[in-house]
């Protein structure tokens, strides 16, 4: 019976998988902290993206320039985010 070894000649630990070198059991976090975004934050971001899209489409219709429409839409979404943050209550 032979002992499995690494490329450098050292023995594999008993907790490592011989095929991939990863632990046999995945590491599970001890505590789940909660959602990444609250529903209020998600609502603010979605509304900002919608408003930015509207600004971008209207800019494209008036100028016909795609790059200018993209920049206007991004600026509209960025400018509307703090405004929506103050308007949408806690």
List the helices and strands and how they pair.
Blueprint: H1 39-63, H2 66-87
Q: What gap, in angstroms, lies between the N and C termini? A: 67 Å
Helix and strand content put the structural class at mainly alpha
Number of beta strands: 0
Mean pLDDT: 84
The main β sheet shows up as: none
**Share of β-strand residues:** under 5%
**Residue share in helices?**
40-55%
What is the N-to-C succession of helices and strands? HH
Radius of gyration: 26 Å
Number of helices: 2
Unreliable parts? none
Basic shape: elongated
Pick out its properties.
single chain, 90 residues, mainly alpha
Plain-language structure description:
- The protein has 90 residues and is an all-alpha fold.
- The chain has two helices and no strands.
- It has helices at residues 39-63, 66-87.
- It is elongated.
- The N and C termini lie far apart (67 Å).
- The mean pLDDT is 84.
Report a brief summary of the structure.
The protein is built from 2 helices and no strands. Helix content is 52%, strand content 0%.
